[in-house]
Amino acid sequence: MSSYTFISIIALAFYVFFVATFLTARKNRIIRDFIWVLLVLVMWTGGSLLMRAKMWPSYTFWYQISLAGIWLLPYVYFCFIRDFAGEERKPSHMLWLILLFAGIGINWKTGFFLAPPVIVEEGGRTAFVYHMNWHVGIMYGLCAILVVRMGLMIWQVKKRKPERVAHLMPLLMGIVILYLGNLGVSVFKQFPVDILAGICNAVLLFYTLYVGQTFRLTLLGSRTNCYLVAMSISVLVFFSLAKELNRFIQEYMPELAEYDVMIVSVLVMLSALLFYNLIKRLFDRLFVKEEQRQTETLARYTMEISKSLNLKEIFSALVNVITDTLKVKKVYICIQENEGDYQAVYSSSPLDDKKFVMDQSHPLVSWMKRHDECLLLRDFKRTVEYKSMWEEEKKRLDDMKLECFLPLKDSEELVGIVMLGGKEKHSGFSIEDMGFLNSIESVSSIAVKNSRLYEKAYYEARTDELTGLLNRKCFYEVLEEAYRKCSRTSLSLLILNVDDFKLYNQLYGTREADEALRLIAQIIKGTVGENGYAARCSGKEFAVVLPGYDICSTQNLAENISLQIRNMNRNSKEGYLKTLTVSCGICGMPYAASTLQELLQNADRAVYHVKRSGKNGIMVYSDGILQMKKDGEGVEKHKSMYSEYAPTIYALTAAIDAKDHYTFQHSKNVAYYAENLAQAMNLSEEYRSILKEAALLHDIGKIGVSEHILNKEGKLTAEEYEAIKSHVEYSVGIIRHLPSMDYVIPAVIGHHERYDGKGYPRRIAGKDIPLAARLLCVADSFDAMTSKRCYRQAQNLDYAIGELERGAGTQFDPELVPVFVELFRSGKLTLVSGNNEERSEIL
User: How much of the chain, in percent, has pLDDT values that exceed 70?
Assistant: First the structure.
């Protein structure tokens, strides 16, 4: 073997090492392509080595194997870059492979492109001399076309995926060096410049793998293979030098000539052992020790965060494990807030600026949502997302000196982003660092997910779903805790009970009632702030625990809240909403209670006394004396204003009667039916009075509808029907100009709504329709069917009741219809439209 054989051995060692490593990696299309690249490189380098060693069957055979590797190398590189760049596989690509195999076959038989080298013996050394002609240009021309095609492909990738070009450029440079090295064979006729070019290519491959981070490998399984490869290399290297060593002993140490075989054997064995240990230590340093250290660190971190469901503890452990393991200078953790923005909530130093916020549309957030792995800033800068950022956003990332970003995901949802600064020794993030961070991401994401689920369950268990305040159970816990802490100071309890809320619910429906409760809760929470704890104790009752507050301060707070609640509906879009008030009871410790039970009982007594004294007031319990303060002018019990405006209303209805004789009597009939139905539903007298007034006024808006339409005998057109529907808005508009009568508006505006949501004007459905409107709907429809109209005769009772029953659940409230029908069946209600003789058999 020649003195240059070690060059082939070193090149082959690189390639065998990579093959052994990649064979244990997780396979995908790109890694399979790369393994083919490595196998072709082994074929080329191994053939060259065996050719120089003149192994069996002949050196020309191994020459042809090596040359076949050179022919195929550009094609396998082309396939690898094509798949790495995400390009589509085309049938024309197979044509290149056919041409290359044809060239290999022709050259094997005839040596047309490049004949085998000539062996020249010079001074006991063997050299292989190549004689090239113009035919070799065809071979290199085909290979050059493929290299150019790869360059064009990389240029196209640069436009679409610029972040990948940096990983592909070292590979392309390696191909060019290989190409130039093979061309240099004719210039350096004895020196294996082609094999040296292969070593340069191997170095570039190493750079691509471990610095450019093209792949992420799992080297745990390949460690044994690496040791075997290292041992094989050491034996091959010293075996190639054994002949030279033997000649040296014969010439310069003749006295040891008879022991030359033993000396050479011992030296080869010791040298091989030394070389093996050096390689082993290198591999241990590069992979094993660092891998073991990171594995142990990851295990400790996993154990630590698995014991905690507190987000701050998890964040603290996450920051510590990253800074201790990777020696990172800065770590920021951004978590998704309720609004969807990502706010910096934790950092490695309490002095760090945490005002950094990224909204959902931020390009970095968008990238993180689509990927499940960490991202280096230098790679992100090559992406389209980075180029779309505002200059201010780019400057902010640079000012924070960030270099790496790690996503925290809950399934497909991005719940947070970990942002890392540079490392202390100004070294970049290696492939091992990236793998460690990805492992940290997996564990941390699970921990954050569990913590968020726990916090969500904890929050839901302690808060009222409708208002967001503390619920009754949590209220008692907070009160007991405040009682213990304030045993030597003062503690006040304020209870607020919404006045006439059942009536409000009946007037406006559950949706408006729920919205009112939410608004009241916001007022209480906003007024109390961080000074106490607000809770919803029951449907319409709220409580406020005020540690450190005295009676006077609590009373001032109650007055503020009460005033805001009275004014809350004045600015409502629905201008007809009834004014709400609250009855407030206050008790304080140690002034008026010595135990927690007394504090609760005395505050309840104060509320009860306000209710009995006319509502809408604040009462303080002090040493058994109830001190009442009337809040504002107060709101009296409902007093009908109908009689005051009766002349005006009768004048309007008389005007309607002149246009449409049906409307005036119809309103009286509806009031009769609705009031009886309300009584059967056990509604209060006050409520029945409001309902009756609403029934008398529900069609007053027909004064604004054309007489021609009101009295038309035929079917209405679409335009005429829309005109008829407008009478609801006209009615509301008229009633709004009657002071203190606006309490009837909910029933008037909703009496044409349907239970299934297909009515008008608001198209609300079910319980969202105020109860008064649902009652009027049944009464109004029934009287319309049983009364004589200009376009038809009155329907009999059987027909009307049948229509009500068929419309129950769609047009009418299914709970009201059976009650209304039963009134007729039991004889408690009779027709008032002049059709009493048609009592029918259903009675």
Answer: 80
Residue 143 to residue 148: CA distance in whole angstroms: 9
Tokens matching residue 498: 């919404």
Query: Are 37 and 225 spatial neighbours (Cβ–Cβ below 8 Å)?
Result: no
Question: Looking at this protein, which amino acid is placed at residue 357?
Answer: V
Confidence at 242, pLDDT banded by 50, 70, 90:
low
Of 274, 37, 2, whose CA–CA distance to 129 is shortest? 2
Q: What is the number of other CB atoms lying within 10 angstroms of the CB of residue 418?
A: 23
Q: pLDDT of 392-446, one tens digit each?
A: 889 888 888 899 999 988 777 888 899 999 888 767 787 778 888 888 888 888 8
Torsion angle of C-alpha atoms 337, 338, 339, 340, degrees rounded to 10: 60
pLDDT tens-digit series, residues 114-146: 888 888 876 666 777 777 788 888 887 888 888
216 Ramachandran zone, left/alpha/beta (phi>0; psi -120 to 50) = beta
Q: Return the bridge partners of 407, or none.
A: 417
CA 434, 176, 194 angle in degrees (round to 5)? 105
User: pTM of the predicted model, to two decimals?
Assistant: 0.50
What's the mean pLDDT in 86-105? 86
Closest to 399 measured CA to CA, from 433, 352, 360, 438: 352
Return d(Cα 628, Cα 541) in angstroms, integer.
Answer: 19
Are the C-beta atoms of residues 181 and 197 closer than 8 Å to each other?
A: yes
> Residue 164 burial (CB < 10 Å; 0-12/13-18/19+)?
buried
132 φ, ψ to 5°?
-105, 150
Taking the C-alpha atoms of residue 447 and residue 773, their distance in angstroms, rounded to an integer, is 52
H or E element in which residue 700 lies: none
- b/e map 807-842, b = 16+ CB within 10 Å: bbeebbbeebbeebbebbeeeebebebebeebeeee
Strand order across the 331-336 sheet: 357-358, 342-347, 331-336, 413-421, 402-410, 375-376
Q: Are 268 and 246 in contact (CB under 8 A)?
A: no
pLDDT value, residue 137: 85
| Backbone angles phi and psi of 360, in degrees to 5 | -65, -25
**Which residues have CB under 8 Å from 598's CB, separation 6+?**
587, 592
pLDDT at 235: 61
Q: Which of 704, 803, 697, 796 is nearest to 751 (CA)?
A: 697
Q: What pairing do the DSSP bridges indicate for beta strands 533-536 and 541-547?
A: antiparallel
Give CA angle at 394 (390, 398), nearest 5°: 165
Give phi and psi for 335, each to the nearest 5.
Answer: -120, 145
Name the nearest CA neighbour of 298 among 149, 435, 123, 183: 435
Residue that has been written with the tokens 């009597």 in this structure: 665
- The tokens describing 558, both together, are 């109650």
Measured distance CA(675)–CA(729) in Å, rounded: 24
Give the rounded distance of the alpha carbon of 104 from its chain centre.
56
Cβ proximity of 727 and 660 under 8 Å: no
If residue 679 lies in a helix (H) or strand (E), which one and from where to where?
Answer: helix 661-680
DSSP 135-166: THHHHHHHHHHHHHHHHHHHHHHHHH-HHHHH
How many residues are recorded in the chain? 843
Give the DSSP H/E element, type plus range, for residue 389.
none
Per-residue pLDDT, 840: 35
Query: How far is 95 from 605, CA to CA, in rounded Å?
Result: 96
In this prediction, residue 633 carries a pLDDT of 44
Residue 722 CB: number of other CB atoms within 10 A?
11
pLDDT tens digits, 776-821: 999 999 998 988 877 778 888 889 999 999 999 999 999 999 999 9
For residues 391 and 395, give the distance between their C-alpha atoms in angstroms, rounded to a whole number. 6
